[in-house]
UniProtKB/TrEMBL annotation:
Keywords: Endoplasmic reticulum, Glycosyltransferase, Magnesium, Manganese, Membrane, Metal-binding, Transferase, Transmembrane, Transmembrane helix. PANTHER family: DOLICHOL-PHOSPHATE MANNOSYLTRANSFERASE SUBUNIT 1. Transfers mannose from GDP-mannose to dolichol monophosphate to form dolichol phosphate mannose (Dol-P-Man) which is the mannosyl donor in pathways leading to N-glycosylation, glycosyl phosphatidylinositol membrane anchoring, and O-mannosylation of proteins. Its EC number is 2.4.1.83. One of its GO terms (cellular component) is endoplasmic reticulum membrane. Component of the dolichol-phosphate mannose (DPM) synthase complex. It comes from Wolfiporia cocos (strain MD-104) (Brown rot fungus). This is Dolichol-phosphate mannosyltransferase subunit 1. Pathway: Protein modification; protein glycosylation. One of its GO terms (biological process) is dolichol-linked oligosaccharide biosynthetic process.
């Protein structure tokens, strides 16, 4: 079997219905005549948090069909970021890519993302904010757009990357190995790596893409996830700035937490109400 130069890591929890289309679409894209990366040099690693939903059987069936894919089932750990870290640690390729299992990160972009990595471009980021693809899909509800843009704005002082929230990113193995004190409980491992691996702006490649549509499973976005992200931001600000700047951010962070708690706990207050009619002017 040929050597592996590229590894695609897919953290998953209860995503059995998406694994087959994800893997087959990845390798279909790699087998195109214009693919800059050969399919035989790529492996896919699914890191599953003990879903017990048939994910193992799906991967085994794909292996029998000749796809270079394997699954790591974790029974003592949970969480997106720690799953990505585990996948990168297990990866055989020097060029590593992370993508979601829900098909919102289009598999057709995998060859381009992998090819963007090089000794001079050690980090690649799939961005929704460039190349005319549009910042957010038109189908997203208003509150999802507010959350996404708010999360991105809060991260701007930490990195020059345009979209560290996308979760569709790649990194060179030697750079990943240099990162210290990674937050395995954090919500956005890409942002953690950008800060703690001290990746300079000139070493970041960006590939514009638009979110695809989830076809199976459920979205993991909820208030708890957003609170985890804000806690991660607080830790990164303290790591990167210390002192007064970190203190100021913590104040903004506290206000944002209060806003989120209000947003999810009392949706009725956000609705526009129409004053009751007084009955004047009605015909009797």
């Amino acid at each position: 079997m040929s050597a592996i130069d590229y590894s695609v890591v897919v953290p998953a929890y209860r995503e059995a219905g998406n694994l087959r289309p994800l893997v087959t679409r990845i390798f279909a894209a790699l087998q195109r005549i214009d693919s800059p990366v050969p399919a035989h040099a790529v492996e896919v690693i699914v890191v599953d948090d003990n879903s017990r939903d048939g994910s193992v059987e799906v991967v085994q069936a794909l292996q029998r069909e000749g796809y270079r894919v394997r699954i790591i089932v974790r029974t003592t750990e949970r969480g997106l970021s720690s799953a990505v870290v585990r996948g990168f640690q297990e990866a055989q390729g020097d060029n590593m890519l992370c993508m979601d299992a829900d098909l919102q990160h289009p598999p057709e972009f995998v060859p381009q993302m992998l090819a963007a990595l090089s000794p001079t471009k050690v980090f690649v980021l799939g961005t929704r904010y460039g190349g005319g693809v549009g910042a957010i899909d038109e189908g997203w509800p208003l509150h999802r757009r507010v959350i996404s843009n708010g999360a991105r704005m809060l991260a701007l002082p930490l990195t020059s990357a345009s979209d560290p929230m996308s979760g569709f990113f790649g990194i060179r193995k030697e750079v990943f190995n240099k990162a210290r004190n990674l937050n395995s409980q954090g919500f956005k491992i890409a942002l953690d790596l950008l800060v703690k691996a001290r990746i300079p702006p000139h070493a970041i490649a960006e590939v514009p893409f638009a979110f695809g549509l989830r076809t199976e499973g459920e979205s993991k976005l909820d208030s708890k996830v957003m609170i985890k992200y804000l806690l991660q931001l607080a830790e990164l600000y303290w790591y990167g700035y210390h002192g007064v700047v970190a203190f100021l951010f913590l104040g903004i962070f506290a206000l944002f937490v209060l806003f989120l708690r209000w947003w999810w706990s009392d949706p009725v207050t956000r609705q526009v109400t129409v004053p009751p009619t007084t009955g004047k002017g009605r015909a009797h």
